[in-house]
Write a structure and sequence with these properties.
Low-confidence stretches: 210-216, 224-230, 255-299
Structural class: alpha+beta
Strand content: 15-25%
Number of helices: 7
Shape: rod-shaped
Length: 516
């Protein structure tokens, strides 16, 4: 820019000098015009010079104009170059900023990648730990299943052992009865032999005495032998009858020695009143006392005393139900339901239903008067369910049922009278039963707290109902069924019922045998 400004100033100075030179020449020519007539050739030369000067001036002006135009072009180029330089500098700043930002982002990405690698390692370690824990839980489950099977086998063995002990006691009593009968038979045989001997002696003396005297001696001999007045034929018949009874009792003793179940052990009623008297109290022996029975025999009535209360559902009606309010206070990932059940209906009906505003089938034990009647649906979160076999319950007797479910394992267990009747996997794993719903006994809810059907209602007796928020062990299930104390951690029992509707009655009873 400084060089262009100098060139422009020099061109202006040259132009001014030329103008001044031309003015001086004109004045000199005008002053010397009158005296220089004889010098015309000189003036012509000057004119020529002036014309040449003018031409030179025009050419100079043209060059100056061109120079000025070139200067303007150069100036525009310089301004454009400056603008380009500014843009370049701004672009370079933007590039530097973007480079710094990209470097920062790359640094952040590197840190995130490192964090992800660390998290991946941690997750891999957690997955390994979970796999190990899952394997341990699986082994524990298998061990628990084996323990449950072993407990069932031991219970069966104990029941068979009790049956065998009862059979042994009955066999001992029969052996004592047989021994007493044999002694009585021997005494009767000895009496018959003595009577025969006396009769022979009387026959020998018959010739010497009269018939009336012989009859009198025979009557005395018979009274001394039997305490009554039977003839010899009657005594022989009675002896044969005793031998027949002895053989029958011996056969019964052999059958009892081969028996293996309580149904085979039961001797039933005697064939005649005389045999019943002999079986209960044989001659020459005492009754077998009750204390001779083994201590492992059947339980006495009134020993299942962990019931607390009983609900009576007399008929199939939509008005009959019992409600818990409040119901569940916290969500459940595991649960156990146990109760004594007795029904004479041909179907079991709905024992329990738990509904919320979101879903009316959060937890249901659903049965109805329709085929198949020997099973009920165990529902957790509609529409997932499993079928439980309940045909053995429909006999009008007390039965103990326990339903256990684990969301952590996705498994369920169904115990019937202390024995594992059904088990399953892949059932609602990870599912959570929410709190603050409507929990009813005896009816199935199609809406929240309503929508009942009489064909789905429960008819019968429920006693000792209890709910736990955990998985009960097989030993705990067995202890409940045997009448021992309830395990810890109960969530709800019949004591928490807040409302009874319809014809349902609540009976407070300590022991199951005293509930009716």
């Amino acid at each position: 820019m400084r060089s262009g400004f100098g060139m422009r100033a020099a061109a202006g100075v040259v132009l001014v000098a030329l103008v001044l030179v031309g003015a001086c020449l004109r004045g000199a020519l005008m002053q010397s015009a009158g005296a220089a007539e004889p010098r015309r050739p000189f003036f012509e030369r000057l004119r020529r010079l002036e014309a040449q000067f003018r031409q030179f001036q025009e050419v100079t002006l043209m060059h100056l104009q061109e120079t000025e135009e070139n200067y303007n072009l150069s100036h525009n180029l310089h301004t454009k170059m400056d603008q380009l330089l500014q843009k370049h500098e701004s672009l370079q700043l933007v590039a530097n900023r973007s480079q710094t930002s990209t470097q920062e982002e790359l640094h952040r990405l590197q840190t995130w990648v490192k964090k992800l690698e660390r998290n991946g390692k941690k997750q891999a370690l957690r997955i390994r730990a979970l796999e190990e824990a899952w394997q341990e839980t699986r082994q524990k489950q298998q061990e628990q299943q084996l323990e449950s099977h072993l407990s069932n086998l031991t219970q069966e063995l104990e029941s068979h052992r009790e049956d065998f002990q009862d059979v042994a006691v009955r066999q001992q009593s029969l052996q004592k009865t047989l021994q007493n009968l044999q002694d009585a038979l021997r005494s009767q045989g000895s009496k018959l032999v003595s009577i025969e001997r006396r009769l022979k002696s009387l026959k020998q003396k018959e010739a010497l005495t009269s018939p009336w005297t012989a009859a009198h001696h025979l009557e005395k001999a018979s009274q001394a032998a039997g305490g009554q007045s039977p003839t010899l034929k009657k005594l022989h018949a009675k002896h044969h009858q005793m031998e027949g009874r002895l053989k029958a009792l011996a056969e019964r003793g052999s059958l009892l020695g081969q028996a293996a179940s309580p149904q085979q052990v039961d001797p039933g009623p005697a064939s005649s009143p005389e045999q019943q008297t002999l079986a209960e109290q044989p001659p020459g022996s005492n009754k077998v006392p009750a204390e001779e029975k083994p201590p492992g025999g059947p339980r006495k009535p009134g020993t299942r005393c962990n019931v607390g209360a009983m609900l009576v559902f007399p008929n199939a009606s939509t008005e009959n139900f019992a409600a818990f309010q409040p119901s569940l206070q916290t969500s459940l990932l595991e649960l156990s339901l146990c109760s004594w059940v007795r029904t004479s209906a041909r179907y079991l009906g709905t024992i329990l239903s738990y509904a919320t505003e979101e879903n009316d089938n959060k937890l249901v034990l659903h049965g109805r008067d329709a085929a198949p009647r020997n099973s009920i649906h165990f529902v957790i979160g509609d529409p997932a369910f499993r079928e439980l076999p309940v045909g053995a319950i429909l006999d009008g007797r007390w039965h103990h049922v326990c339903i256990i479910w684990s969301s952590l394992q996705g498994r369920y267990w169904f115990y019937l009278d202390r024995r594992l009747a059904s088990v399953g996997s892949n059932f609602r794993k990870g599912y959570e039963i929410p709190p603050q719903g409507s929990l009813l006994l005896g009816q199935e809810q199609d809406t929240l707290g309503g929508g009942f059907e009489s064909s789905e209602s429960f008819v019968g007796l429920l006693a000792g109902f209890a709910m736990w928020g955990r998985v009960l062990l097989p030993g705990e299930v067995s202890s409940i069924a045997l009448g021992e104390s309830l395990p810890h951690g109960t969530v709800l029992t019949l004591a928490n019922i807040s409302m009874i509707n319809g014809s349902v009655q609540k009976v407070d009873c300590i022991c199951l045998e005293h509930c009716l």
